Amino acid sequence: xxxxxxxxxxxxxxxxxxxxxxxxxxxxxxxxxxxxxxxxxxxxxxxxxxxxxxxxxxxxxxxxxxxxxxxxxxxxxxxxxxxxxxxxxxxxxxxxxxxxxxxxxxxxxxxxxxxxxxxxxxxxxxxxxxxxxxxxxxxxxxxxxxxxxxxxxxxxxxxxxxxxxxxxxxxxxxxxxxxxxxxxxxxxxxxxxxxxxxxxxxxxxxxxxxxxxxxxxxxxxxxxxxxxxxxxxxxxxxxxxxxxxxxx
Length: 248
Ligand code: PGA
Hints:
Number of helices: 8
Shape: globular
Low-confidence stretches: none
Largest sheet: 7 strands, parallel
Bound molecules: 2-phosphoglycolic acid
Strand content: 15-25%
Order of helices and strands: EHEHEEHEHEEHHEHEHE
Mean pLDDT: 95
């Protein structure tokens, strides 16, 4: 089995630059690259750096196709907490990915089963993912594939664990405790499954900060287990970990 390549840098700014350099180089090498891209806090600096490289060195995103890893169910693309809005804010407003090549599950789709089938078919029609960039949850999740007895391979609707929900929506936790939320928003999301992720030809996983250290150790130094979804990446022949020292 091949060990993942590990790139360990001093801090999160260097992680962002390293990750962006890998993505930027992949686009320059293969102008029709198909990317799977993450959201969350970890990749924000990578997007900033990719935008800078686009502006200063002219990296052309005109032939690039992007699939997002996930999106919240029941959330409109223009909702400020949607991942569609996140991608607009951090990437699409600043680089020239044609809108027809910006793919993300439709949080408002009428029929979730049809939506997941549509998304998988779109990935296949694009020729599969060349490069997937992932974050990792403190519980070892990738996308919204949460620790569980069983994992679902293709794109599907997932339920966030309490831990993930509280990390992603700290501003809603108080209202929830005080029973002020009638229905809890953002508890379900579309996510690419571990199967769709493992089909990517190259996977880059980013982690920064000491709160990710245990998850990285469990994922890459422990057994392969569905209880640590990122550990399934041990089965992939080409994984690059870009970590800062605190996470490594
Ligand atoms: P974070 O999320 O970057 O906001 O820590 C990572 C993840 O949950 O995959």
